[in-house]
Amino acid sequence: MGVHEIKPGDVLLAVEDISLSFGAVRAISDVSFDIRKGEVRAIIGPNGAGKTSMLNCINGFYHPQQGTITYKGQKRSAMKPYEAAAQGIARTFQNVALFKGMSTLDNIMTGRNLKMKSNLLTSMIWWGKAEKEELEHRRFVEDIIDFLEIEAIRKTPVGRLPYGLQKRVELGRALAAEPELLLLDEPMAGMNLEEKEDMCRFILDVNDEFGTTICLIEHDMGVVMDISDRVMVLDYGGKIGDGVPEEVRTNQNVIDAYLGGGH
Amino acid sequence: MEDFVIEFMFFLEVLFSGLLTGTLYSLVALGFVLIFKASGVFNFAQGAMMLFAALSLVGFQEMLGVHWTVAFLLTVVVMILLAWCVEKFVLGKLVNQEPIILFMATIGITFFLDGFGQTLWGSDIKPLDIGLPTGSLDFGGIFVDQLELVAGATAGGLVLGLAIFFNKTKIGRALRAVADDHQAAMSVGISLRNIWIIVWSVAGLVGLVAGIMWGSKLGVQFSLSLLALKALPVLMLGGFTSIPGAIIGGLIIGAGEKLAEIYLGPFVGGAIENWFAYMLAMVFLLFRPQGLFGEKIIERV
């Protein structure tokens, strides 16, 4: 619809001079960066650097006071979260935001919400069609469950699952929307080594097999340097570094920020 | 032997009457469950909504002199409008706030509706007559109130419809998702706004139906608003999140209080009916705080 096809390597999302404050507190000041289609883009930085705020701006939870966000060639002002979702932006949360009373399967099914056509009225008039549609989506969701190797907990209410598995279910819910841009907020926080390796594998597989563009926040430097194509570094709401992992690793500002030498 | 048969028939009559009154409680409880299930808010205003709906229905009938079906449709429009206003002016401003804040807001809505309804339609007791059958039917010696039968059937139908709606449709799942986590629901593309308008409309409709039944029985008056209090023990028994629970809870409370009145009343001086439900709910809270069918409260520490 007027939006030209974006090829791998082209800019999918561009953030320009964004500033965000809460009252007198500046969460982000004048940050610009871009995410290219098909890449794994990492945002790193010490606690309180504005990483999560950045994701919240991208998917519409926060509306920055200054700056613009261009997604798929369209510049946009304030966007609501469900509109961002409708345009192919899915995400996970730092403190796992799942529907705790619902089963794994139902949680992931909610991710299909936007893909389902039948509404209240049509499903009342033509029940059979709505049921058939439900089944088709169910099949898709089962594929995701297989992919993430969580068959055994299909029917378990997610509130009962250990943290690592909850993170996996949350990834499943985001994948169910077949997103173009996937935002992951600390997908490996609180995991043991084995769980981290699994999660890395899933992220890379999603990126490889479906060509999904991924933007992730992570604290584990080993992981970040391993799986990312490019890394942006934030500190006190400002950008202090940006580039391929090797550049960032040797950037003096970044080293100072992490070792506390600069302050 | 003869005595025993008469005793037994009497018992059955009390039981049926209790069960059917119970479905009337269930109708009120149903409105609470809907909103609680879908937004995690305990809607204190459910009783006021019921009163407001009944007042509007009677008001339209009186003022316009139209058939009750027309008045019914007009009232449905009013309740949808009310749902829209609640979202627009109250809940919409309180996204991501603590449940207690939302609860306080519904208390505000209660007072507003009570006052507004009476300002619009007056505060006299009004008869509500939409041609529902009255009087009793004789089932081989057991007398059953016809109005209560209709109420029972209506409640059954509503529950069936709502259960299918909640468990089998996309909107139903979206409703449950919103109840669980606002942020996450928005991130998968659910519009909070639409969901809240839908659920408050449905709760308004259920309130209207409950208001018609109670209004036919007692007349439309301010005390209908207080019936909401009778729904509380029903909810504690059935669970705040279960639609079938609201029905079963209503049946247990209805039958329990009638039987207790007849058979235990004489030993403690009567008037058990007034407090039995609350007593039962309290005992229940001790042993099964989530109610019979409520979602188990899961907390990982």
UniProtKB/TrEMBL annotation, chain A:
| Keywords of the record | ATP-binding, Nucleotide-binding, Transport
PROSITE patterns given in the database record:
ABC_TRANSPORTER_2
Entry keyword ATP-binding? yes
Q: Where is the ABC transporter domain?
A: 13-261
Segments crossing the lipid bilayer: none
Any one GO MF term held by the record is: ATP binding
Tell me if Transport is a UniProt keyword of this record: yes
- Official protein name in the record: ABC transporter ATP-binding protein
Q: From which organism does this entry originate?
A: Sneathiella chinensis
From TrEMBL, chain B:
Subcellular location as annotated? Cell membrane
Q: Does the keyword Protein biosynthesis apply?
A: no
Ranges in a coiled coil: none
Which residue ranges does UniProt annotate as crossing the membrane? 14-34, 41-60, 66-87, 99-121, 141-166, 195-214, 234-255, 262-287
> Which is a Pfam family this sequence falls into?
BPD_transp_2
Which keywords fit this entry according to its UniProt record? Amino-acid transport, Cell membrane, Membrane, Transmembrane, Transmembrane helix, Transport
UniProt key word Glycoprotein: no
Sorted alphabetically, which InterPro entries does this protein's record hold? ABC_transp_permease, BCAA_transport_permease
Could you tell me the membrane topology recorded for this protein?
Multi-pass membrane protein
Q: What family does the database annotate?
A: Belongs to the binding-protein-dependent transport system permease family. LivHM subfamily.
What protein does this entry describe? Answer: Branched-chain amino acid ABC transporter permease
